[in-house]
Design a protein that fits this description.
This is Formate hydrogenlyase complex iron-sulfur subunit. The protein is of the alpha+beta class. It is built from seven helices and six strands, in the order αβαββαβββαααα.
C-alpha cells in the first residue's frame, strides 16, 4: 500500500485545477472574436467570409445606420473574419469560457452611421468606409480635389449618371455620327 502512495506522489497531479485556477492556453489559440467598433469601417468583408454565418450586417437606409452582429452561438472560431478585416478591427482573443444563461447574451452588436450621397442625399455607404477609402487614396499620392472628393462621396447611381453626362460632353462630333 505504501508503495502505491509513493508512486502516486512521484507522478504528480494528473489533472489541472481548471475551475479554481485559470486554464493556460497555448499561443495562437483561437478564442472568442472581439470587435473594436472604433476601428471597424463596416465594409462587411468579415460577414462575407464567415463560413458559419455567425456574422451578419444589415443596412437600414431610412434610419441611415448599418447594424453589425456576431452570434457567438454559431461561431466556429475559424479566424477567417480576423484574416479578411482590412483594418484589423476584429481579433480572436484567448477567452473561451462563453457559458451564458440567456441565448441573447451570445450576440454582440455594433451600429455604424451611413454617409449621405453628395448629389441626391440618400445614404449609401458607411461613413467610416468612405473616409477610409479617401485616406488610402491620399496616401497613395492622389490629389483629391473637390471634384474627386464629391465623386467618391456619391452613390453608385449618381456616379453612373455623372459618368454618362461627362462622356456625352467630351465626345467629339465625329464619334457621335459613328
Amino acid at each position: 500500500m505504501f508503495k502505491l502512495f509513493k508512486i502516486i506522489a512521484k507522478a504528480g497531479e494528473p489533472t489541472t485545477k481548471y475551475p479554481f485556477a485559470p486554464f493556460p492556453v497555448s499561443p495562437g489559440f483561437r478564442g472568442k472574436p472581439e470587435l473594436n467598433a472604433r476601428q471597424c469601417i463596416a465594409c462587411a468583408a468579415c460577414t462575407q467570409s464567415c463560413p458559419a454565418g455567425a456574422l451578419t450586417m444589415q443596412t437600414d437606409s431610412r434610419a441611415g445606420r448599418r447594424e453589425w452582429a456576431l452570434n457567438l452561438g454559431r461561431c466556429i472560431f475559424c479566424g477567417r473574419c480576423e484574416e479578411v478585416c482590412p483594418t484589423r478591427a476584429i481579433q480572436l482573443t484567448q477567452e473561451f469560457e462563453l457559458a451564458v444563461a440567456c441565448k441573447d447574451d451570445l450576440i454582440q452588436r455594433a451600429s455604424f452611421r451611413l454617409e449621405n450621397c453628395a448629389c441626391c442625399g440618400k445614404p449609401f455607404a458607411p461613413l467610416k468606409e468612405v473616409h477610409h477609402v479617401m485616406d488610402l487614396l491620399r496616401q497613395s499620392g492622389l490629389n483629391l480635389d473637390e471634384h474627386l472628393r464629391e465623386l467618391y462621396a456619391a452613390c453608385p447611381e449618381c456616379k453612373r449618371k455623372r459618368t454618362i453626362e461627362r462622356d456625352a460632353l467630351t465626345r467629339s462630333p465625329q464619334e457621335e455620327r459613328a
